[in-house]
Here is the input.
Amino acid sequence: MLLDHPFVEIVGECRNGKEAVLSIREKKPDLVFLDVQMPEVDGFSALEALGGTALPQIVFVTAYEHYAIRAFESAALDYLLKPFDQLRFNKTMSRVYEKFADPVHAETYQNKIAALLETLGQKRIYLERLAVKIEGRIIFLKTSEVDWIQADDKYVLLHAGTKSHLVRQTLGALERQLDPQRFLRIHRSAIVNIERIKELHPMFAGEYTVVLENGTQVTSSRSYKEKLFEILGKPL
Here is the structure.
């Protein structure tokens, strides 16, 4: 899409948020298209890691409309809601050119980004929906519908009712985007929806079998025992 804009030089493309932070620090681009949901480090954490000084202009890219409207509209240069076409992209680029031509915009923008970072630090915004690709389509799965999440190398399996969906995302990166009052990591390879927990069965050496409402059994390792009872409450 950028090929239609000869004044733009592409200086980098990153596979995950961690690479993005390093690349932005090194190459100091004028403009960054920043995805919200990325492996390793998400868009929120990338902004926080970069800090509020001399940040590039940001166009947020997201599949989640509530992010764009609630969190970014007042601070971002613009946002692109996936899926978008060339026409929508060109509208964003028109806004980019307009803002870069305005000498007052840069200072105002930095102030808005600083305010956004402060807000993110005070109140984290968590995922309410997850974008899942199925046979060439993208469906949106409410996080409240997810029973538990299983790590599978660089992917995760979202278990929701009788269906499971494979998503390219590490468990750690996804964990940081989920509300810790609703989702609890109980093992290095498993996160469960707290509302779905029905029973706990003690095993040995501090481990527990976590039984979900649909009968699924997931092992909680010893290292997560304290967090498990902190959220669920200790038995009387």
Q: What stands out?
A: The chain has a mean pLDDT of 82.
